[in-house]
């Protein structure tokens, strides 16, 4: 018997529908939206789940995560003598990357993903680049750490796209860096390990595997093509860091005579399955090239402001019709609503204007949606697409992946159907999240996960070991 979820406000297909309900089949797939006036008739043929004082929305996708970076949250914020930059933060990151064994990685990822789940997230894209043991040797299973991360998501019932990262060198003209010894693999062994990981999860409905050439700094241009070929022949997503820092652009210019987006697009390596992470220091001409290639850009506004990376030109993306998705990246904060609103707020501070990303009033923009709808779609629909997973909009035939928000949460009192998207994007916090469902199955109810206490205890133990180590 199908299930009829009946919140106060249902948000599907870019609109808040008061009194409507979502009909979900036994296989966890959306059958259709049921309008308020049809409810009486349909309710008799379905199991009714009433969700009073709640709004139901498509589940959120966190497109760019490095779970282990949670270990030094709030511990790299001060200033060091000589100034503090992205590159000094990176030394802290190497210390954390040198630490975790597979068991500890599992405990860290479980805590990080639980925090995401409690923020309404059903799907995480883990950009995973720690492959070797603490001494730089290959584990007997070269995917041991990737498997630990996947197992963490599976233990919570969440979806994961494991973006297995290629990391072949320190950078143009640089010697291998000791902080990166757990990342390095040879190009041939990388592809073999990627292939093995994808094969191992071919039958898992909630696990996707993609490729992630770390950056043009870590993967020379000649090594990009075989990775892109693999993603194309297997129909998988490809993610890479790009133009996060001006120094990265400068090194690329020195090596190849072009900046990274121009270089990779010129080599035919960008397409609709590509997601560029950050893309802050690019030109508008490069943004047009990203649009023509059909690639997505994953913005990580909380991390980017934390690291002092710069402001992502999201208005150019909207003008040219580039899809944007979001990631929590360094885990400085896991707050998808905050990421979405910061994308707009950074532009307001830059321009001294408001409503910068409101495409509904912009002549000549490809992105024509009102601001709340556009940002909500970036959190949901665009994220699912970027991670190679069907869904994200609760349309008929899509998986019933959704979350609910308590409308009696103090921050959301008075929220209505017409303005739901804006109120959620600009005012909601994870504290208002009540339930998260994946494929029609509840993972979180009344804001609580049944294993939360055990997950907290295991994380605290690992955190202690890291600080003592
Ligand atoms: Zn990253």
Tell me what you see in this structure.
- With 469 residues, the protein is an alpha/beta fold.
- The chain has two domains: 3-58 and 400-438, Urease, subunit C, domain 1, CATH 2.30.40; 60-386, TIM Barrel (Alpha-Beta Barrel), CATH 3.20.20.
- It is 36% helix and 20% strand.
- It contains 16 helices and 16 strands.
- The chain has helices at 39-43, 86-97, 102-117, 144-156, 187-200, 221-234, 246-256, 260-266, 284-293, 301-306, 314-320, 336-351, 371-379, 381-386, 420-427, 452-468, and strands at residues 3-12, 15-18, 21-24, 30-34, 47-58, 60-65, 121-128, 159-166, 207-213, 238-242, 274-278, 296-299, 324-326, 402-406, 433-438, 441-444.
- Strands 1, 2, 3, 4, 5, 14, 15 and 16 form an eight-stranded mixed beta sheet that branches. A four-stranded parallel beta sheet has the order 6-7-8-9.
- Helix 4 links the parallel strand 7 (121-128) and strand 8 (159-166).
- It is globular, with a radius of gyration of 22 Å.
Descriptive keywords:
alpha/beta; TIM Barrel; 2 domains; 8-stranded mixed sheet; 4-stranded parallel sheet; 16 helices; 36% helix; binds zinc ion
Low-confidence region ranges: none
Helical percentage: 25-40%
Shape: globular
Bound small molecules, by name, code or SMILES, are: zinc ion
Structural class: alpha/beta
How many DSSP-defined strands?
A: 16
CATH architecture assignment name of the largest domain? Alpha-Beta Barrel
Oligomeric form of this entry? single chain
- The structural domain count equals 2
Number of helices: 16
CATH superfamily of the largest domain: Metal-dependent hydrolases
**Describe the biggest sheet?**
8 strands, mixed
Strand content of the residues, in percent?
A: 15-25%
Q: Examine the coordinates and then state which fold CATH places here, giving the name of the CATH topology of the largest domain.
A: TIM Barrel
How confident overall, as mean pLDDT?
A: 96
CATH class of the largest domain: Alpha Beta
Distance from first to last alpha carbon: 54 Å
Task: Tell me the Rg in angstroms.
Answer: 22 Å
């Amino acid at each position: 018997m199908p299930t009829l979820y009946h919140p106060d406000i249902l948000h599907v297909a870019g609109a808040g529908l008061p009194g409507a309900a979502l009909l979900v089949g036994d296989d966890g797939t959306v059958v259709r939206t049921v309008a308020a006036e049809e409810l009486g008739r349909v309710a008799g043929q379905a199991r009714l789940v009433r969700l009073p004082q709640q709004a139901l929305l498509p589940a959120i996708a966190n497109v760019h995560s490095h779970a282990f970076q949670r270990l030094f949250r709030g511990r790299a914020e001060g200033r060091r003598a000589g100034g503090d930059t992205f590159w000094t933060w990176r030394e802290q990151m190497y210390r954390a990357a040198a630490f975790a064994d597979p068991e500890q990685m599992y405990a860290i990822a479980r805590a990080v993903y639980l925090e995401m789940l409690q923020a309404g997230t059903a799907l995480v894209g883990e950009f995973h680049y720690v492959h070797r043991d603490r001494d730089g040797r290959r584990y007997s299973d070269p995917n041991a750490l990737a498997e630990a991360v996947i197992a963490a998501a599976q233990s919570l019932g969440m979806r994961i796209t494991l973006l297995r990262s290629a990391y072949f060198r320190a950078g143009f003209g640089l010697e291998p860096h000791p902080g990166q010894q757990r990342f390095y693999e040879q190009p041939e062994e990388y592809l073999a390990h990627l292939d093995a990981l994808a094969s191992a999860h071919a039958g898992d409905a909630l696990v996707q595997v993609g490729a992630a050439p770390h950056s043009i700094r870590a993967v020379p241009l000649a090594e990009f093509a075989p990775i892109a070929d693999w993603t194309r022949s297997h129909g998988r997503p490809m993610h890479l860091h790009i133009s996060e820092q001006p120094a990265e652009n400068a090194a690329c210019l020195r090596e190849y005579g072009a900046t990274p987006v121009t270089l990779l697009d010129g080599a035919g390596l960008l397409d609709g399955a590509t997601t560029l992470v950050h893309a802050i220091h690019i030109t508008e001409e490069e943004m047009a090239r990203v649009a023509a290639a059909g690639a997505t850009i994953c913005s990580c506004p909380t991390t980017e402001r934390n690291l002092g990376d710069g402001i992502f030109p999201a208005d150019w993306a909207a003008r040219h019709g580039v899809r944007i998705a979001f990631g929590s990246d360094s885990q400085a904060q896991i707050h998808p609503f905050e990421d979405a609103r910061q994308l707009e707020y950074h532009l307001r501070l830059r321009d001294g204007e408001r409503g910068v990303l409101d495409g509904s009033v912009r002549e000549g923009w490809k992105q024509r949606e009102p601001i709340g709808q556009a940002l909500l779609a970036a959190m949901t629909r665009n994220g699912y697409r970027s991670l190679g997973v069907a869904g994200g909009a609760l349309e008929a035939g899509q998986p019933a992946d959704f979350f609910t928000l308590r409308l009696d949460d103090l921050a959301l009192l008075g929220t209505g159907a017409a303005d739901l998207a804006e109120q959620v994007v600009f005012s909601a916090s994870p504290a208002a999240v009540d339930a998260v469902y994946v494929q029609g199955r509840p993972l979180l109810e009344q804001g609580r996960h049944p294993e939360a206490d055990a997950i907290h205890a295991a994380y605290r133990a690992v955190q202690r070991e890291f600080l003592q180590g």
